[in-house]
Specification:
The C terminus is likely disordered. With about 250 residues, the chain is mainly α. It has 14 helices and no strands. The protein is globular.
């Protein structure tokens, strides 16, 4: 049976465990976990067509093994120093990797998201994220509103006020895309947001769901164009805030 590094090369074109999950060698524990979750979402056997399940299962199991190495301080230290993995030490070939994944990432409910949103809005975390997306997209409000999680068109005036404060304090540059945005672009963004809300309402009606399922409807309405963004949102949310369930009947 091929070793982990050989399987990584076969499945992902590299033997570098960090490159497999898309993080830097200096990544901290939370970043490694987010990288693992993002990739595992893409190759999860339940998310592919039937004819692709065998290949996806192999990749999914491989990613789980990679994470089991990089999430263990001692095993990671050995790998960082030698570039090698002891395939006989601690990697359970018969492990149910789906159960392992769900243990790490308990299902996030709509209530969890609402609770997160209430704490996130107006927080220092949100302010830090706003600074990051503002700088990344050089003040382009279209991109900013597209990538800020837990945001809607109603948040835009609040975001603009924050950006102006940050510019005044010289914490971010005064990009022309922001300070000189024309009214047509602003109006167009508002129309798109209203269209998305209408689409979500139509999806709700077609699914026969109620108000409590509005989040599900909104996500479904955006699946075609923004599925990757939705995945990334849940990956970050689950990796940062979800707590693993404690195994029952086992002593620590």
């Amino acid at each position: 049976m091929p070793g982990l590094l050989e399987t990584c090369r076969e499945c992902f074109g590299t033997e570098d465990l960090y490159k497999v999950i898309g993080v830097q060698k200096t990544a901290n524990e939370a970043e490694v976990k987010r990288g693992y979750h993002r990739l595992s979402l893409k190759v999860h056997p339940d998310r592919v067509e039937e004819e692709e399940k065998e290949d996806a299962t192999k990749k999914f199991q491989t990613v789980g093994k990679v994470y089991s190495i990089l999430s263990d301080k001692d095993k990671r230290a050995v790998y960082d120093e030698s570039g090698e993995v002891d395939d006989e030490d601690g990697i359970q070939e018969d492990r149910d990797w789906v159960d392992y994944w769900r243990l790490l990432f308990p299902k996030i409910t709509e209530e969890d998201i609402k609770n997160f949103e209430s704490k996130y809005k107006g927080s220092e975390d949100e302010r830090a994220d706003l600074k990051e997306v503002y700088t990344t997209f050089e003040g382009d409000m279209d991109e900013i509103m597209e990538h800020m999680m837990c945001s809607s068109i109603e948040d835009e005036p609040r975001f603009i006020k924050i950006f102006k404060e940050l510019i005044k304090k010289r914490e971010v540059p005064d990009y022309e895309a922001f300070s000189k945005e024309n009214k047509k672009k602003t109006a167009s963004r508002k129309r798109r947001a209203q269209a998305e809300e209408k689409e979500a309402e139509e999806v709700k009606k077609s699914l026969g769901v109620g108000a409590d399922d509005s989040l599900q409807a909104l996500i479904l309405s955006k699946q075609k164009g923004r599925a990757a963004q939705a995945d990334d949102f849940f990956a970050n949310l689950e990796a940062k805030y979800a707590q693993p369930k404690k195994a029952k009947g086992k002593k620590k």
